[in-house]
Amino acid sequence: MAQQQFCSNKEGAMHIEFSFPVKSDIKPRAILSLKDAGDMTYKPKSESPSRLAFFDRFGIEPTRIAGIELKHSRNVAFVESIQELSHACAANRDGFDGIITTNPWLVPSITVADCMPIWLFCKECGAFGVLHSGWKGTGILKTAVDGMTNRYRCNPNDISVIFGPAIGSCCYLVDEKRARAFKNEFGSQAVDEHMRNGTRVFYLDLLAANLAIAEKIGIGSFFASGSCTSCDGRFGSYRREGASSFTRMIALCIFGNAEAENRQRSM
After folding, report:
1. Which Pfam families match (predicted)?
2. Domains of the chain
3. Could you read off the pLDDT of 119-141 as tens digits, one per residue?
């Protein structure tokens, strides 16, 4: 399939699917819901009708979904069951913004609405998952890859990454203090700085920052969507829709039932 494909039904475009840029007989699907699929806010003890309907599109039982309350951190949960994830969340007050596993029955998930979803898959050890990377959490990619290296003995060169849609440098206007801090940590390419009507303005480039991280840590292959969630009305966007009415999208990393069974037999 194409590396990026919008998928629609009679109600409109409901999700976008990405393909990991790696040769592998069995690899997970990277899925992002779109605005027309409805709000995908995560609640630990219940699932909304819009979330249940979305899971049903892919034949996913809700009990397979590994979800987290996002904290805009750089912390990643490395877990092999829903129970282990629950224990990890209870033990870590700072929370998590990413989930990595080798269990094909788990479906790691996060929500986004301008922040960047990042999917990962190691073709050798089979570890996979998804991260939530906003301006505060930029750098979570390194946390994830370091953890995969230490826990699963992954080689970064065997890890494939998908950088999903996020607010672009065309729209991500920030104050100078935030821009300077971001530039100091991630380099000049991570901030677009120029004059507008006699005033110096600053725009963050989340994609450029994450690409620099990927290059530095030696990621083997990647695909970058490059779509701006604020510009494109098909996406949910905090900036475009406003704080009181924005649409949270859900990012899933999925092995189908048959693929999960095949992977379990080969593990």
Report:
1. Cu-oxidase_4
2. 4-266 (3.60.140.10)
3. 999 999 999 999 999 999 999 99
